[in-house]
Design goal:
By secondary structure, the chain is an alpha/beta fold. It has a single domain, classed as TIM Barrel, CATH 3.20.20.140. 52% of the residues lie in helices and 13% in strands. It has 17 helices and 8 strands. The chain has an 8-stranded parallel sheet with strand order 1-2-3-4-5-6-7-8. Strand 3, helix 8 and strand 4 form a beta-alpha-beta unit. Helix 1 runs antiparallel to helix 15, helix 5 runs parallel beside helix 7 and helix 16 runs antiparallel to helix 17. The longest helix has 19 residues. It binds hypoxanthine (HPA) and zinc ion. Hypoxanthine binds next to helix 4.
Length: 338
């Protein structure tokens, strides 16, 4: 067993490594304290009165259980300032954890479908991104994610609303209830997004079958897969992910909280890393799953026995798998060449 002091040294090591977070839903970073504060500010009545009441509700059997609470939580986000405050709070956490770059997903449909304008959502979030660059030196990119339980037509409407803000949004993503909502459902809208010059990602193989990962790659043409755990069942797929170095944004604390795996000891991150896949670790919805990026590194270190070399490769991969340009990547990667 590694000594307490060795673990302590290693934990400060990964905090010091330059890291990118590539799989983070900004609505999933809504901490209970801020949720209650915004509910009060916006006159929204909730069944929760105290932080503990919310924390007690964080007990999920599956993805849908979580999504029900997550969408319920978004109801307190009303004004542009609310989106700013939420996003800025996330960057503050990043600044304490050695995160140099964050690729942030946001779900416009969960706001526009309850009457909040696209403008308020995007301006609040993107102003916070600019402020974070000034205050903490953290760069970022925004990923507009379509809700896959809604129709492709609804996604097209959202893409249209985004046109005016094209310069603020880097990529398109696909999230929400995976089962029975295959990537192919969004084939046309992804084609249109590609024509408009967006980069493409999608959640696939979190709860859904391995075929959804193939669809995301071959039909939607994504450059990166969010989660992708189901690839452990398909040798040919893993070979494709290795050959083309298609990144996976894995989320260990999320997988435990949503019972995607029965125990952290069974998490495939290190096996996949050692096979040569470009895997990264991320926090997904940190306010709901009990951990920001450092807790995910700690979980992998403490339960899977990740070595210093593994942790360093995971951090390095996060830069390589990001949407930063080559020069920016190289700037961060010099740390790993020392
Ligand atoms: N999976 C799918 N959709 C989501 C998630 C997730 O983990 N978090 C927020 N939306
Ligand atoms: Zn996610």
């Amino acid at each position: 067993m590694r000594s307490f002091f060795l673990n302590l040294m290693m934990s400060s090591l990964y905090i010091q490594m330059p890291k990118a977070e590539l799989h983070l839903h900004i609505e999933g970073s809504l901490e209970a304290e801020l949720l209650l504060k915004l509910a009060q500010r916006n006159n929204i009545s909730l069944p929760y009165k105290k932080v503990d009441d919310i924390h007690r509700a964080l007990n999920f059997r599956c993805l849908q259980d979580f999504l029900d609470l997550y969408y319920y939580g978004t109801n307190v986000l009303i004004e542009q300032d609310d989106f700013f405050e939420l996003t800025y709070a996330y960057f503050k956490r990043c600044s304490e954890q050695g995160i140099v770059h964050a690729e942030i997903m946001f779900d416009p449909q969960s706001h526009t479908n309850r009457g909040i304008s696209f403008d308020k959502v995007i301006m609040g979030i993107s102003n916070a991104c600019q402020q974070a660059k000034l205050d903490f030196g953290i760069s970022s990119a925004l990923i507009l994610s379509f809700l896959r339980h809604l129709t492709e037509e609804d996604a097209f409407r959202t893409l249209k609303q985004a046109e005016k803000y094209r310069d603020k949004i880097t990529a398109i993503g696909l999230d929400s209830s995976e089962l029975d909502n295959p990537p192919i459902k969004f084939k046309q809208v992804y084609q249109e997004a590609k024509n408009q010059g967006y980069r493409l990602t999608a959640h696939a193989g979190e709860e859904g079958p391995v075929d959804y990962i193939w669809q995301a790659i071959e039909i939607l043409g994504v450059e990166r897969i969010d989660h992708g755990n189901a690839c452990i069942e398909d040798h040919a797929l893993r070979q494709t992910l290795i050959n083309y170095q298609i990144p996976l944004t894995l989320c260990p604390t999320s997988n435990v909280a949503l019972k995607v795996i029965s125990d952290i000891k069974h998490h495939p991150v290190l096996d996949l890393l050692h096979q040569g896949l470009l895997v990264t670790i991320n926090s997904d919805d940190p306010a709901y799953f009990g951990g920001y990026l450092d807790e995910n590194y700690a979980l992998v270190q403490n339960n899977l026995g990740a070595t210093e070399q593994d942790l360093s490769l995971l951090a390095r991969n996060s830069i390589v798998a990001s949407m930063l340009n080559e020069a920016e990547k190289q700037k961060h990667l010099t740390f790993f060449k020392l």
